[in-house]
């Protein structure tokens, strides 16, 4: 294995970890600023509309993070 290949793998893992940490921090902030408990609404109340909105927001944030890292 060339040192360049190993360096690329390490960079990919580091950037992926940074992206995941940023996403988790964002999701915690999103849960904190909403006036209700997201986890309860999604799991116990089965609020499908909220699930779609939270999923869309999560995908949007992931795309922004990926673009910023790339």
Characteristic terms for this protein:
70 residues; mainly alpha; elongated
Total beta strands: 0
Q: Tell me the domain tally.
A: 1
Q: What is the gyration radius calculated from CA atoms? A: 16 Å
Share of residues in helices: over 70%
- Backbone structural class: mainly alpha
Average pLDDT level: 87
How would a crystallographer describe the biggest sheet?
Answer: none
- Unreliable stretches (pLDDT < 50, length at least 5) are none
Note the overall shape. Answer: elongated
- Continuous helix count: 3
Distance between the ends: 24 Å
Order of helices and strands: HHH
Range of strand content: under 5%
Q: What features would you describe in this structure?
A:
This protein is mainly alpha-helical and 70 residues long. The chain has one domain (3-69). Helix content is 84%, strand content 0%. The protein has three helices and no strands. It has helices spanning 3-33, 38-43, 48-69. Helix 1 (3-33) runs antiparallel to helix 3. The relative contact order is 0.11. The model has no long low-confidence stretch (mean pLDDT 87).
Briefly, what is this?
By secondary structure, this protein is an all-alpha fold.
Write the topology of this structure.
Layout lengths: L2 H31 L4 H6 L4 H22 L1
Helix pairs in contact: 1-3
